[in-house]
């Protein structure tokens, strides 16, 4: 009988010890986790964001528009309002406007939208509210080294640009990089005015942007072909914009002007397999690319320049630093994911293209 009582008391002690340990562990966890304690719904904070994103993406807008998380909502229903494509209207974009005219001058790359809808899972992103709040990255620079690595990898896989030995700078789309490149190249010889030219037909922003900034270092001087046999090109500082492939004729243009004082800026926005054949990797001194034509994410305003000359790289870096204090990190996030599942990335099964 005494043995049974002794065994029972021993078990009671073990149970009390285990309960004591559990209670103490809970107190310790509560101490370190914070006074508010642990809540299961807070451990999966991405769930609500994902649910909201999928709910908005499910709004069909009659197939003639899209609803967005950051778009307008109907106040009394908290339901997102459809943003309709051209020629359509109404709350669900079902109304066709018979008097609509086609905008042949527009350049929105919305034709790539079905590709991303089809690859919704592989291209979706969830971003924490505290993501990249600093001006700079961990190395105190304005450039993501990981993003740069992805860009080099993408070019190497696609085969449309030589990346070895090149410097890379990021900008708010290639539009900002156009002005940065003109500034950097015109600084080569500050004693003379740089003449900026381009072959007709050319992207209107080449002229508009050059004229807008009214710099004392450069002026837009029209069609490049008019300067081909001009004796002044051998002495004057010339900067030629070269669009390759060109828009709208698709020609793989080369610089018309040659000489020691001639510098070329190659705009390779459309130099991707879903726009043109790639006969060889581009290897010019100054090459510009943009995410808008690679993946269709024009609203992200992200572009990059690949440069051979370190001095040009440093001038462009300084221009961009003073102009915008680095790039918007939200653009970099999308750029990380988009090229990995990009329309130009070779696949065994191409899907959309």
From TrEMBL:
One of its GO terms (molecular function) is carbon-sulfur lyase activity. This is Alliinase C-terminal domain-containing protein. Keywords: Aminotransferase, Membrane, Pyridoxal phosphate, Transferase, Transmembrane, Transmembrane helix. It holds the Pfam family EGF_alliinase. Residues 333-353 are annotated as: Disordered. The lineage of its organism: Eukaryota, Viridiplantae, Streptophyta, Embryophyta, Tracheophyta. Residues 44-100 form the Alliinase EGF-like domain. Its cofactor is pyridoxal 5'-phosphate. Homodimer. The keyword Protein biosynthesis does not apply. SUPFAM superfamilies: PLP-dependent transferases (SSF53383). The chain crosses the membrane at residues 12-32. The keyword Mitochondrion does not apply. Residues 102-327 form the Alliinase C-terminal domain. InterPro entries: Alliinase_C, Alliinase_N_sf, EGF_alliinase, Ethylene_sulfur-biosynth, PyrdxlP-dep_Trfase, PyrdxlP-dep_Trfase_major. GO terms for biological process: amino acid metabolic process.
């Amino acid at each position: 009988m005494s043995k049974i009582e002794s065994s029972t008391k021993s078990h009671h002690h073990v149970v009390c010890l285990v309960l004591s340990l559990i209670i103490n562990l809970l107190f310790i966890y509560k101490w370190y986790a914070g006074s508010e304690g642990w809540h299961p719904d807070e451990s999966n904070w991405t769930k609500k964001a994902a649910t909201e994103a999928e709910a908005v993406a499910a709004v069909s807008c009659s197939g003639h528009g899209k609803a967005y998380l950051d778009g307008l909502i109907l106040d009394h229903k908290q339901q997102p309002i459809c943003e309709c494509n051209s020629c359509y209207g109404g709350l669900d974009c079902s109304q066709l406007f018979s008097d609509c005219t086609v905008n042949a001058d527009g350049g929105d790359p919305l034709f790539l939208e079905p590709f991303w809808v089809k690859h919704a899972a592989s291209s979706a992103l969830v971003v924490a509210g505290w993501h990249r709040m600093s001006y700079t990255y961990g190395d105190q620079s304005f450039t993501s080294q990981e993003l740069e690595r992805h860009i080099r990898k993408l070019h190497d896989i696609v085969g449309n640009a030589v990346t070895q030995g090149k410097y890379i700078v990021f900008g708010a789309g290639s539009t900002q990089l156009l002005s940065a490149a003109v500034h950097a190249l015109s600084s080569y010889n500050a004693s003379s005015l740089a003449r900026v030219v381009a072959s007709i037909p050319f992207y209107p922003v080449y002229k508009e942007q050059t004229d807008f900034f009214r710099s004392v270092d450069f002026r837009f001087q029209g069609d490049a072909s008019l300067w081909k046999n001009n004796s002044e090109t051998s002495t004057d500082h010339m900067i030629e914009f070269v669009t390759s492939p060109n828009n709208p004729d698709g020609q793989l243009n080369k610089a018309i002007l040659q000489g020691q004082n001639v510098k070329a800026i190659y705009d390779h926005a459309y130099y991707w397999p879903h726009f043109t054949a790639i006969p060889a990797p581009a290897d010019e001194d100054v090459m510009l690319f943009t995410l808008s034509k690679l993946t269709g994410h024009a609203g992200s305003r992200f572009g990059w320049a690949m440069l051979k000359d370190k001095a040009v790289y440093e001038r462009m870096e300084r221009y961009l630093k003073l102009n915008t204090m680095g790039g918007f990190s939200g653009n970099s996030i999308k750029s990380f994911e988009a090229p990995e599942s990009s329309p130009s990335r070779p696949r065994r099964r191409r899907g959309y293209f």
